[in-house]
Write the structure tokens for this entry.
Amino acid sequence: MESLRISLHSPDPLTFAGLVSMLRAQDGIKIEERLPSADVDVRVVASDALSPELLSVLRRAAVNDRVPVVLVVNQLQEAQLLAAIECRVVAVLPRVAVTTDRLVHSVRAAASGGGVLPPAMLGEVLQHVERLQRELLAPKGMNTAGLSPREVDVLRLMADGCETSEIAGKLCYSERTVKSVISGLNQRLKLRNRPHAVAYALRAGMI
């Protein structure tokens, strides 16, 4: 079993040393100091606060790679949390509550595609999603994946292997309408063809 490759970042030498001591002795975790940041499995970042400078660094990293981030921080406001999530932060640990077990759990969760948030922060995210659905998506007849009910229906039938004519018949649309829906999806989501659209929707949990 290959070890998880972790990069550590902290402006405070004492905090950095503490993180190293917590993770270095753990089985299945390897701290990488020489690999390019994009080649690691998880990036652990520790700071007193999510400053504009740190947020800018995280934003640039998120553009250049898709490495998940575990953020260890003293203070994090609601608006900052949402910005951090956009920068691939998938786990947040308050510095005062960090233990070796919690840090290792967060790293492993991040590497496996999961996330870890304190209950209060999770509540904030859920409230934000609810507001997004109520105020922006619902008036346009769309869901949180950015798809309309018609687009979801077409994708589901495509996933079942239905041809254009079958989809049109089942949904009582014209074939032209079905083709228009598929074309719109491909252009908006930058997809190559129908199989790519179905695979994308399944992976993203859209259908």
